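Task: complex structure prediction.
Instruction: return structure tokens for all chains below.
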Amino acid sequence: MDFSLVQRVFPFFVEAAWITIEISALSLALGLMVAFLVAAAKMSRSLPLRMFGSAYVSLFRGTPCLIQLFVLYFGGPQIGINLEPFAAGVIGLGLNIGAYMAEAIRGAIMSVDRGQTEAARSIGFSRSQTMRKVVLPQAARLMIRPLGVNAVALVKGSALVSTISVVELTYTAQRYIGSTYKPFEIFGVAAVLYMLIVYVVARIVDLIDRRYAIV
Amino acid sequence: MTAERPMVEVKGARKAYGELQVLKGIDLSVARGQIVAIIGPSGSGKSTLLRSINHLETLNGGEVWLDGVQVNQALRGQAFERHINAVRQQMGMVFQHFNLFPHLTVIENVTMGPIILKGMAKVAARELAVELLSKVGLAEKVDAYPSRLSGGQKQRVAIARALAMQPKVMLFDEATSALDPELVDEVNAVMKQLAAEHMTMLIVTHEMRFAGEVADRVLFMDGGVVVEQGAPSEIFREPKQERTRTFLKKYLAA
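Output:
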């Protein structure tokens, strides 16, 4: 175990970790937006929208995220989409996690008791009032945990963008392997930093969950 | 003659789930201020009938009228949405499982309808809610969340919530079936109070004694049809139909 090496490379890894955090945060934001739209589409009364939602989820959950990133980054230019590695990474991860999060959101909405909708409708609330005032406030609480699980998966999954040359944690680690031949130390440092990020994300999810606990 | 127009009228109501006929042509007329109890075995269609009046179930045939306005009008899309939302505001519905909104306090449960749907000022809505909650004996619970209440208390809040919209009719769908026996009376007492105030009520119930005490008319349903109806004394003491007799015998024996 070469501790002096660990000490020497650590600052560079912390920098790389910030890129991992950045790319995770941005793709999380994109993913959430996509997820709400796709969940709304899947629960819509319009058949074409429902079909679109289902197709989206099947496509992005049914193929490897790595392939999705490759299609976007390497295949994109062929159809006129030229993206920087970072942008391709954010979009690729965001579109992918969006499909998973859409299901988490839909699951939460569907697990609000049907009686709640019936009660609201029987008072005279419209569909959208019922959704906004009665169902979503209850579903929001139920979706915090599953969305948190997805956020954690996203942080770890962001390692994939190293393959399209985004200089984040995993990419940085691989680069140092070439010059040091000390994979145990190098990947060990990367692993510890991933764990730290995941720990912080999990704590944030805990805090949000507690904040919205129903009395 | 408005005075003679029925408050609730159901004509030839039919409802099927696939092959299963749940309502096979039901006629029902409830006058203003009248209280009708609907009894019958499980699966007889009594809950479906009540829910159809509120359009929580869509009939396959027949008509439902509320105070001279057809509930299940042949409108489409948004036009029907607007119509049904307006009609539902005039009907209070009380469910077996209360269905209070757990993320809102008791008073928020009650004021939500008047504030959002009737544009009532918050202060006025609060006043109304406090008055109704006092009436159902829960004035001290206004700021509690539903999870802190007993079943009987929840159901009384649910009744107050329905009353806050100042409905023309109250529909009770087995309002006491999910309650522990010792909590049934407090809910029944509230319903009796409403009866004394001449609220028009349709009550689906399994409690024969309560039906006998409170109802002007009892309707016995079985297999999707109204088998027999009449004053409680007639239905309970001298039922004309064999099916009614069998049901009551089974029920009172159990």
